[in-house]
Amino acid sequence: MNRETPSQPSLNAWPLWVRLEKKVGISRGWESITWEVAEISHLPLEHPESVRLELQLFKDLRSAYRFNLSSQNPKLFVVCQETEQGLVPHQISSCQDVAADYMDAGQPVLDIPLPAPIHAWMEAFMAHHGEEDPRAGKRRMRGKPKADQNPQETSS
Question: What residue spans carry the region label Disordered (predicted)?
């Protein structure tokens, strides 16, 4: 791992170091392996299996960020790749939609509670760029009928 010095987050990107931990247990008499995020830090981790990832925020995902931030238990999602040695962190996101896309593609995704400093940083991003209008893209010109409507139905 590259032991670079920590860098401060910018408005839309924050470098983080992530380490996963393998847990071996017994489930219904069989050996069961699970993985969890053991550590996450804005400082380089001393563990040789820690990985530097960059949490990035994008303007077009603001409504998804708001959904996560407003939920009862906001989360951070770590997308992983399966290797012969086990899971390796590949990407980090605060967007549930991104995590769901990876899960739909069969990639493992771990989640942890959203750390308070990252929550505050995301709120600052939202304040800087403004909230996304959930109706954007659904607007139509006033006085013009929808394509699937009969023009006589729209006149009064």
Answer: 131-156
Question: What is the rounded distance in angstroms from the CA atom of residue 82 to the CA atom of residue 130?
Answer: 37
Q: What pLDDT score does 118 carry?
A: 96
Does pLDDT of 63 surpass 70?
yes
Q: What is the pLDDT of residues 99-135, one digit of tens each?
A: 999 999 999 999 999 999 999 999 999 999 887 665 5
Contact assessment for residue 112 and residue 75, using Cβ atoms and an 8 Å cutoff: yes
Query: Is the whole-model pTM more than 0.90?
Result: no
